[in-house]
Records
---
Amino acid sequence: MSQLRSIDELAFGATVPQTIVAESRSDHALLEATRAGCEDAFAELVGRYRNQLTSYIYRMTNDYEEAVDLAQETFVRVYRAADRYQSTYAFSTYIYKIATNLAISELRKRKRRRMVSLSAFFASAEGEQPQEFHVPDERPLQDATLVEAERQQAVARAIMTLPEKYRAPVVLRDVEGKSYEEIARILETSEGTVKSRISRARGLLREKLRAYL
Amino acid sequence: MNCKEFQIEIEENETDQELSPTASAHARECASCHRFYTEQRALRELVGKVTPIYAPADFDFRLRARLAASREPGRLSLGRFNFSPGNPAIIFAASFALLFAITVAVQQLRSSHTERKATAVNMQVGAEATSTTVASSPSTGTSNETQSVADNQPPVKVESVRSSGVNARNKARRSLEERQRALTAINSMQPRSRALNFSETVAPAPIVLLDPEMHIPLRSPLAPSRLLVSEHDGTRRDVSLKPVSFGSQNMLPGRKTSDSSTTGIW
């Protein structure tokens, strides 16, 4: 892989104008071309996965800026490790594995930081869960769009409350539509464990979202 | 099909996948499994229809900047490891190596300095020894010897003077070769000098002054020599040294010696 000398060299699509990246090329072929120095191929890979990764990491972290940052870090790692990439599994498995590891690492960092919730100061009694403050909504009655938005927020919140070991498989399965086999490879665990965790996660979600079912 | 098998099939089915005939038959018979199937399907549709999240418009630009920054000059890439001058691990390793090198150098310096101190005895043999302040018991022989013992601090001077004999004074003038031989003999006396090294810290660079009046008596005193040692802090110590003979002597009864040399000196 060629060494980058300036930011201008990474103008995807402009570095090697004579190179034509066909839409039908597989991910493996694109990564091979990236390894050979074709920046267009890497740009194509970025185009294929940037939204998927951003969405997936957002479902894991519930922080858009963090999701974008981690998605970019995922691509940086793919680019740096292009020489060492082995096409044993699908490229999507490979890139989702990197993204998952980054997201889980970020979640663990957050746990260590232990952010203090302001609502914790308003717990009415010892041992009672603090009630979130809701600013009174003085706007007109909600229409169907707002109801749907609220439903979406409820789903997002419910997913975020899942333990991380349940969150990743259920997002990969029910949001990203991955197969059990691929999820097992991404999470580096057995299919049986994946099925068990997904079942447990759905049970938890069913309890939290019962009002919307 | 029982309830457990039914729930497993529901869990593993794709969202839009139809139930198998046996599962459909079980759902019709079992109300709880039918409710489970309905809720499960609704839940998966609800979760699957979450609003997709899109990357920002400047995603590519930011990624390009990030890739370019990761390849900034001055960063050394060795396989899996990237080194840069500001890497804390490199700073720590370099500091440790520097500290280790300094420690080894200091230890070597100390050991060499101690060796020098152990062997360095500043001996002055000359006529000026006659004016020293410490005198041994009277003796027929002559031994003028000034030993300077010092350490890093101000040196401790040990001066030992034995009264000069008449014979030695009369035969003081000798050739340079004779004096050189005498000097060699004094150097061979260093083990005795080390015994006077009280603190194992002796001033470096032994200096032996060649004095025309230098002579080494062959005869040793019969009585013990007394050394008055004045240290730099004012402490004074009295040391008694037994008579020791050097050179060719005939030992006589009653601890008396007689020189085999006719001159009395080398």
Note: Residues 87-119 of chain B form one domain.
---
Amino acid sequence: MIVAIASGKGGTGKTSVAVNLARVFDTPVQLLDCDVEEPNAHLFFSGTMISEEEIAISVPEINADACNACDECVEFCQFNALASFCRTPLVFPELCHGCGGCAQVCPRGAICEKDFRVGEVRTFQDERITLISGCLDVGVSLASTIVHAVKNRLRNDLPAILDAPPGTACPAVATLRGADYAVLVTEPTPFGLHDLGLAVDTARELRVPFGVVINRVGIGDDRVQDYCAREGIPVLLEIPDDRRIAEAYSRGQIIVEALPEYRAYFELLWRNITAHLGGNTAIEAMS
Amino acid sequence: MKIVFTTQGDNLSAPLDPSFGRTRNFLVFDLQSDAFEVISNHQNQNAAQGAGIQAAQTIVKAGAGGLVTGHCGPKAFRVLEAAGVKVFNTDAPTIAEALARYRAGNLVQAAAANVEGHWA
């Protein structure tokens, strides 16, 4: 089962929910850090790195002797990765999306492809948790390519928790697509509510069933709860605004380890996810 | 030789636009005849990426020998350099002023991009 932890707004606690949910498993579980522009889940674990793989795309290399400057490749490229002025085009690999279309349309077979590194995927093992973490190189824009590389390393026989990037743009969609369930983490503020609406629209569009976790309950107001009730969206968990959680987080500690009383919260979250997925609409609340 | 100026306007008294790739128009000025034409860069203003590269191709195809603008990034500079277009950076407020400075020999040809790329 694949559960993506997403949110419209950044900083609502996706990574906190993801790492703590993974930690309460008493069986092997995979945690995928799909926030490849700023991966940070690994900061909470002390496991060992078991692999480090380079991720590359195929970018064009033009044979100037075969090229007759017809510009068909330049016109085909929608990403402005090729530039021409009546001679062999210049290639800008950092703008290329690796689609290979330029080589296909070249009438003279003047384009071959070579690897261009865009990032890496690291895998760590910490007790029961296998953490697969994607990291996009600085100066490269292909976040979704790294997200796909991370997800391609997922084992189907173990549950997986995906820490999604914030927002609802391509990298977040690449993470959510194909997930069995999405947990949308928000906070009870006007920004949290507004961006939750965007995340809800995205999950509905992708036909991924979802529920909401409200973090830092006690700040703001009740409009997120009211919205969820109105829309028929289950609130899977409410996490109180507790300064001790922020203090533990700032030290790189996992909440369920630093503050054991919160272990029950994340166990409840998992029960509510499986209950909702199983068609059970009765969601448990923390007593 | 033709010199290209970046601008939001369409005549010599218009302000010089400091950005190259996302300027609205290019004013292509012919130094021999003192005639000019205006080329739109409108389709490039909202490009997701590579606006400077596209803009560079546009002015190369317009026959530019020189470019006078505020800023030029590394990718656009690479295209212009390969095509032999000289780049001059200036803070002149209008095209007329920039042209006067060019004719007086007060503009120095840039040896490299004068701003960072957006991705690197």
Note: The CA atoms of residues 36 and 135 of chain A lie 5 Å apart.
